[in-house]
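pls ignore typos typing on phone
FE2/S2 (inorganic) cluster + seq
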Amino acid sequence: MLEIEIDGKQLQVADGSTVMDAANQVGVYIPHFCYHKKLSIAANCRMCLVQVEKAPKPLPACATPVTNGMKVWTNSEAAVKAQKGVMEFLLINHPLDCPICDQGGECQLQDLAVGYGESKSRYQEEKRVVFNKNLGPLVSTDMTRCIHCTRCVRFTQEIAGLMELGQAFRGEHSEIMPFVEKTVDSELSGNIIDLCPVGALTSKPFRFAARTWELARRKSVSPHDSLGSNLIVQVKHDVVKRVLPLENEAINECWLSDRDRFSYEGLNSASRLTKPMIRQGDTWQEADWQSALEFAASRLKAVVAAAGPEQFGALAAPSATVEELYLAQKLVRALGSDNIDFRLRQTDFSADGVAKGAPWLGLPVAEVGELDRLLVVGSFLRKDHPLLSQRVRQAAKRGLKIASIHPTADDWLLPVAARIQPKPAEMVAALAAVLKAVADAGGKAVDGSLQSLLPAVVSAEAKAVAELLGSGQSVAIWLGNFAAQHPQAATLQRIAQEIAAITGARFGVIGEAANSVGGHLAGALPRRGGKHAAAMLTQSLKSYLLLNVEPSLDCAGGAAARDAIAGADFVVSLSAFDSPELRAVSHVLLPVSPFTETSGTFVSAEGRAQSFVAVAKPQGDTRPAWKVLRVLGNLLSLDGFEYTDSEAVRAEVLDVAAFPVAGLDNTLDGLSIASIAAVDGLERVAEVPIYATDAIVRRAPALQRTRDAAAPLAYLSAATLSAQGLNAGDTVQAKSGQGSAQLNVAIDDTLAEGCVRIATAHESTAGLGAPFAVVTLERV
Amino acid sequence: MLSQESLKLIDVEVAKYPPDQKQSAVMAALRIAQQEKGWLARETIDEVAQYLEMPAIAAFEVASFYNMYDLEPVGKHKITVCTNLPCALSGGVQAAEYLKQKLGIDFNETTPDGNFTLKEGECMGACGDAPVLLHNNHRMCSWMTTEKIDQMLADLAK
Amino acid sequence: MSERNLILAGLDGDRTWRLKDYMARGGYAALKKIIAESTPPADIIAEVKASVLRGRGGAGFPTGLKWSFMPRSFPGAKYLACNSDEGEPGTFKDRDILRYNPHSVIEGMAIAAYAMGCERGYNYIHGEVFEIYERFEEALAEAREAGFIGQKILGSDFSFELFAHHGYGAYICGEETALLESIEGKKGQPRFKPPFPASYGLYGKPTTINNTETFASVPFIMRDGGETFLNYGKPNNGGTKLFSISGHVNRPGNYEIELGTPFSELLEMAGGMRGGRKLKGVIPGGSSSPVVPADIMMDCTMDYDSISKAGSMLGSGAVIVMDETTCMVRALERLSYFYFEESCGQCTPCREGTGWLYRVVHRIEHGQGRPDDLDLLNSVTGNIMGRTICALGDAASMPVQSFIKHFGDEFAYHIEHKTCLVPEDVQREGSKIYVGPSC
Ligand SMILES: Cc1cc2nc3c(=O)[nH]c(=O)nc-3n(C[C@H](O)[C@H](O)[C@H](O)COP(=O)(O)O)c2cc1C
Ligand code: SF4
Ligand code: FES
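k done
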């Protein structure tokens, strides 16, 4: 510990602290631009100059290490003179266009200029003009305003993991820019908008939408992945105008993924469903709530009475709130059915009944930084979990070693120390080989139920992964979305459990959606022999209730799921959006609130329950889904639907204050293990593209213009491609047992041999059906 | 695409640095690429960056930071005259004026026949040789009287 | 006269730079002796300290002391870097050392590497002298062939790999941390210090950087003793030093003289004032050192202490001589343009301030000066100095301050009359193309 005195305040700081750290600790504000607590120190803006005892010149607080007994004045005449001098330099070439600048009102330069600037400029020469750059659809530039703090450059290098921006040219001619003709394509790019202390980088979708002081700032939670990023949603006249991160060191730190930041555009999409609608024959009529609900209730009642409750089932989006999921299952069960599910992309349900609790991450997100070994099984980690990957990336800088078992080898912008690339059908064998290797290395026995999976000889790759796991002190194994959606998901989880037991690792499931954990806790899955999602969608039931589900995009079966639902006699859809597909399959459409217009709770991957309230009034006649379900329950004369608020619903499910919440357990007990079946033919590898995950994101125009949202192609390695007798650029008809789709072919040499990568959750590929399948390609 | 010879030369440079520090060779690699191509087109910079496994923008930062890289095409003969103070005191500026008049171009211009580009240089570390100029970055010409300039231009025009 | 060629010893123009010539002059004897006797590293550093060799790159920091900062037992690589990025206007000595005596630098670096336990070194050579870079590569090949650098030098356990790295047109890379960044394949933007290179240098490893001339002095010190070297100079100013003389003298060029030699003698060696004209001012240590008016300069001796007393710096030993035909506003304008042009652009006061300075001086020179411009210049330089990451900010400011201080009348005349005090044709005549007799 070191003693230091700042502006007369005495304090002790840890060795290695800077003067800025010390000042932050005692709450002394030192003006700064280039300094940012999450970025490396550049010390280039010189705004933080302070007076230090015995130093002949002012020193930058951000970069000056504390020495024992140091005395610092941040506000003395000498310090202020230095700061004012720097401010004058910063302003000489800065345009005075605050009235038309989007940063106006939240500009660090503007704020500080009031305190440190002079009213009249001594600089009478011509000001610099810098051409703007095209950074893509999300970030707008006004480069003349740039003060060269290089925060954005350092962000792309250090946090996003790939240097997409640089400071080119020299001296006064310096310009912040991407490489010629390139845009900033990082899935975290929007953070440079927050980092830019002036109005050089601003939000393109938000451009001129509002002045900051007109906006109400309200807290919320992101519905797009299982991290549960905290949001500040900014609203004007009940319309969401912008989303910013709400800093939470334990979750999203001070960052947001672009998906969390820019998806709000979808909320304001023209395809919002704002009136209840009833189908009459082939036409749709707007209705008032009363008649729509009565219509739905009476028809449901009739179908259940006629066909039996087992012919009724509910499918809910995994991004629905705990309250919605809970009421949905309650309704289903009260009607005498057990057909309920929210795991729409899952294909293996053999863990049901043997799982001891809700699958979860297995450790708090904040502890990711302390891991030294991590095995990621079956994950498109970077695009599926942008901010969790960012944490892993930072941990890798501190020595975390990462292994991956997955058919693809996309660049995660972090070092992967060991990698196995099996075909999808070889995933179990690959993980079993690692199990054998860790057991052999540790001289441990493997549980009898898994013996049949163990290979006779262990590959060098499996040994390398085992060695990596064996050499750590703080080890974790994660199953990604691909593993969770895999036809042998439960077996993968059981093997991971065994590897964890042998190596002393923690293991968990990352979870694909905001309520992948919460849905389990809410009981939104069959418990008494009812049908799970896949069973409900392979054969038509007589009646369905859909909660924010777009069948062909949200369900594993794609178009087949839509066709199953279309075969029903009566379908009621609760949805925030209208769509041709929903009109085609449903009989009544009830407009329900997206997360910004309702109260609710998400339980994140780490088991953190986060409740939020509506940040805007429901659009049109939209109502919160929990209320709609409550009224439906009442109209159906079911017991236990007398809630007055959503907290009362939540209270029946979980204790929001507990962290982690109760009921989490990844253990599978007594899973019966099927032997590994060999698969012949070209195997499909299907990711859910980052901007196709849910109905809101799919309707966010700016995100849909990014490179990550480009229409899917069929990717094959060059060798596989030529074995198929195809060339890059060919158009092919891809066919599976369930259907087909027409696609263009491209090369991806990082893909495992014998695979074709075709994204799911996209209209153009929905016809192909299930994500795991043998596919044939025919040139057209 | 860079020629095999250039890539070989780049490999020699890469070998000067620790194995995990390929980027250290970027200055030499850009120089070699420029020698082959005459100037550094964006694709050339991109190719060098890929060869050295570094981000393209990082290579562009380097190419745009150091004066001797040409990011735009230049004439067959690039002549850079030092006009800094020590040289100016012994005729550096007047030598440059003479060149401008002879070639009929100003600094940063190229003769219409594409033969000569004239540049103003900063100190070349040869002030005792004033007037000094550089021919195509690598050949330094010292004590450039008007007669020697005439001679040089005549030789180069051949 | 005190001309004494230790560094440029026995050289006959361009013909004797090869290894065999260097060895004939006693070259590599010091290195051989050190290796044969396994001289303890600490003894070498002590000898260098005894010589009172001060860094020849500009700052004049005692070399022995700098070497002693390197951590002794450090796990992993340590590096050595030679700064041959000579680009400070007026300086052209390192080029001649590398041109005529490259092996003295190689030997000096090998000895330094031995003394500090460095396993690798780089000589960073100014881009504009590319032919020198090519020659140095040849010299390295010779030395490698002869076993003076490389693995297991002269059969001992000592290994030292030395390579050449060229700049490509950026003055700022002469600043030692910018130079390291440049070797790492980045823009040459100086690093904030601390940490200093001795703890966090090239690739984050302990590194020592010295100027070419500093290294070139080491073989002599080790061969003839630090004491001998010191005695060639004067106390606190050990040895001989190269002075690069440019400007209005009859014989511009490099002169190696004992430190402490009167300026007047040096001027005489350089053939005296061109055309017999009157001396007006001298920039004694490279363009960033403050200008000294003629009368003060004529009383100086050429050493760190005397020049410092005169309000300037010995710097790199680049002596820019200006006679009465010089317009001091125009001279400053050119220097200010240089610093504006060469600022790396990283830190605010330098990036924004150097342009401001240049534009104001440019205005004055072009008849658009304003009455309060000199106050403005002084104030802006005050806001730059001491507030930047590296010393380029100071380097850009000192000429402005000193020119105004010593030649303020000429600036005032300019502002008032919108024209030069020295008539245009007189200036042109004084600075017309001049090639001295030695060339
Ligand atoms: C802007 C600037 C330019 C410099 N240029 C050079 C140079 O060209 N050559 C040099 O040796 N030192 C130069 N220096 C000084 C170096 O930073 C460093 O002090 C020197 O190389 C150390 O070597 P020495 O101790 O042997 O002098 C420069 C410093 C600054 C701030
Ligand atoms: S003082 Fe100038 S050259 Fe030095 S770091 Fe700052 S901007 Fe770069
Ligand atoms: S915040 Fe310290 S220099 Fe910018």
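The interface with chain A takes residues 42, 46, 55-58, 60-61, 64-65 of chain B (CB under 8 Å). Residues 26-37 of chain B form the longest helix (12 residues). more later
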